[in-house]
Structures are given as C-alpha cells and as structure tokens.
Amino acid sequence: MSTNARGQKDSGPEPLGQAVSGPDGLGHALPGTVYLVGAGPGDPDLLTLKAHRLLSSCDALVYDSLVPRALLDLVPEGCECHFVGKRRSHHSVPQRTTNAVLVELAQRHRCIVRLKGGDPFLFGRGGEEAAHLVKQGVAVQVVPGVTAGIAAPAYAGIPVTHRRAGSSVTFVTGHEEIDKGRPGVDWRGLARSSDGLVIYMGLHNLPQICAELMAGGLTGSTPAAVVQQGTVTGQRQLITTLADLAERVEAEGFGSPAIVVIGAVVAERIPQCAPEPALVEMPIPF
Fold it and tell me: What is the DSSP letter of 280?
C-alpha cells in the first residue's frame, strides 16, 4: 500500500491497463511520461521552476531519501506516492524494484515524477532508469537539478574552481570499495591530473582515499574540506588538510550525506558569501 506525501494511506494501485481519460474524452488508455526530476541539494529555494511545475501537477511520485519534506508537500491531493530510498547500512529498495514501479505507474498515470536528490544524471542512476524506461516503451524526460557537489561547498563559501587555485575540477564517487585489487577509481591518477576533487559518498572510504591521493603525489598540506547536510538544517563543515582529514572527520563525528572537497580552492573560501542553510530537515528517515 502506498501513501501520499501527507502521510495518508492510498487505497492501493488500480488494475493495470485501466482506461485513462484522454484529451478526446473517449477514455482511451494513454501511456504516461516519467520525468526524472532533480530535487536539488536540499534547500527548496534551489528547486528549478520546471521541477516545481511538475511536482505541483503530477499524478504519481516516486522519491528518494535525500529529498526534504517541503518538496513532497508540493504534490496535489490524491497523488500516488512511493518511497524508494537507498542509504548505506539501511534497508534499501532494489533498483530493479524501482524500475518496475516506474513502468507500472506509467500504465495508469499521465505524469509520473521520479524525484531524485541533486541531479538525476550525476551519481543518481538516472541514466540507468532512463534506459530501462525507453526499453520498455515508456516516454521519459530528464529535468536537471542543482547538484550537491556545487551547492554544498557554496553554502560553506567554497568555490569549486578559482582562477588562482584551479582551472579543473573532477566530480567523483567515493562509494566504490578500495581493496587489494584494482580500485574502481584511480585516485593516484586523479591526484596528478585534476586541480580539485569533489567527492560524493566518500566518508566510508575516506582513510583509503586520502592515502591513495597522497601516494599519487598530493602533499599532506593540501587544503581539504567536508560539508555535511549541505544547504539545510544541520549543515556543518570542517576545513583542514588532506593529511588530517580522515582522522578529524571520525573524531568530530561527521556523517552522511556529505561532500568532500580537496584542492587549493578550499583555501579560497569566503565564509561571508555563504547563504544561510534552509530551515528544513533531510534526509527523510526510514
């Protein structure tokens, strides 16, 4: 049984293939469109106008945990809502289940919003979902969002590029395990090739990541930062060096969701320009 965004229980899905009233009023079954919508980093004011319009008019909503409640309150009464969040060390909905839910909803609704934190096509598995929907004959459109890798550092006053500190930046996931085999990310290569790094989902592997970066040539004095809960209530940041980063993150109890920034751009931080975090909480608890 699903619930709407206000916590009310729905009566459950209608039978697949039920006729939907079309523009001609004849009740012909019409395939729906799934919109892969970026919710932004958390602050509702960073939601795009297109995302706001779709949320305000959608028939069904499929959403993740990194979405503030304030955005869910935008959907119409009666909207069929499904939570499919994923987080480390929590029960998560398998991706294949999410794919199946989207296809099924497209048989019964005209406008389905698949709401994802940040941007759907940046470490959001939006490309996988789009490919699956196209394969199943479902219309799909992507609606880009503001990614946390830019917004979270900005809310701490950190530019991710700077004329004096770096003309290149790499957005990279730190989620992949680092073991004795070949790592999924060539951290040593990145240490040599990119002026700055913005690392998503990197706290779990942070000691190994820092060690690999220094083995690749970055000095221990390289400026580094972590921003937890960027743009919303609970935001806090740590400004330190690469050599001390992992130890201080653990000692000071930083946790996910968090963005890590490594490079000379951290030293160009201007705290006075940082916006106040929004008075909303996220992620939605399981």
Answer: -
